[in-house]
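[recover] target loaded
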């Protein structure tokens, strides 16, 4: 299927690896020029060059912290009129809510709620004026099924979800959609870190813990960034103009509910 977005311009946040990279690569394969960002310059440059070689699109790499206003301005200066924005940020650490300070909450809200809102604020009016725009927020399956030890993520990402629910109904008649992708367990560095920690605690090998996790999953495996990226590319396509304000769960059937 031709996604109909060749020649468009996209900003993809936290794109040096994992799900952000999967989204960036999928958009590039559809002919979308990219501005990608991450904090670590060396990793970001390697990803940028890989995407250039595989797809031939223009890729501009901006190593910065987009939770700061200065960082966002750097990214927006490189792509002042994006057609597509993919908001993404690493999740806050797990823990017991009794141990979290106000600063912990503010940091989580800044990264996982306010930064995406600032990117929406900076780009949505231009998108509406031009008659086309796609904004995709990468959140978490914990928005659908909260995880007790991920309270910082549950709260911040749910706040973003509630905000988008209203705005997305206003922008769609101008050709601009805003949706979220809710990842479950995907084979990323973050998941590998989780299973290394489990292995260290249990005394088992990483391989044994990881295989047990896959075996316990309804799909018998974890997701891969490439299939997550494909879902993102579809939401950014011309075919998804009637989908807005939605939260697409990609978890291989792990959520047990009907709705």
């Amino acid at each position: 299927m031709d996604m109909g977005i060749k020649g468009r311009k996209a900003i993809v946040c936290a794109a040096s690896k994992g799900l952000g990279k999967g989204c960036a690569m999928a958009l590039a394969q559809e002919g979308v020029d990219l501005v990608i960002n991450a904090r670590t310059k060396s990793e970001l440059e390697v990803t940028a060059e890989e995407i250039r070689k595989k797809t031939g699109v223009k890729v501009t790499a901006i190593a910065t912290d987009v939770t700061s206003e200065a960082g966002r301005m750097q990214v927006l200066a490189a792509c002042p009129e994006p057609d597509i924005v993919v908001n993404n940020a690493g999740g806050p650490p797990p823990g017991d809510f009794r141990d979290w300070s106000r600063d912990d909450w503010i940091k989580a809200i800044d990264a996982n709620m306010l930064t995406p809102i600032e990117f929406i604020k900076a780009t949505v009016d231009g998108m509406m004026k031009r008659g086309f725009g796609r904004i995709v927020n990468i959140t978490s399956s914990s928005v659908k099924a909260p995880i007790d030890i991920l309270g910082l993520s549950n709260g911040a990402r749910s706040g973003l979800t509630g905000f988008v629910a209203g705005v997305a109904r206003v922008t769609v008649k101008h050709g601009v959609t805003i949706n979220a992708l809710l990842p479950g367990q995907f084979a990323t560095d973050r998941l590998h870190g989780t299973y290394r920690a489990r292995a260290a605690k249990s005394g088992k090998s990483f391989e044994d813990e990881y295989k047990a996790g896959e075996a316990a999953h309804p799909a018998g495996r974890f997701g891969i960034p490439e299939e997550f990226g494909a879902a993102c590319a579809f939401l950014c396509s011309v075919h998804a103009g009637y989908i807005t304000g939605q939260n697409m769960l990609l978890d291989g059937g792990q959520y047990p509910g009907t709705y």
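[recover] notes: The mean pLDDT is 96.
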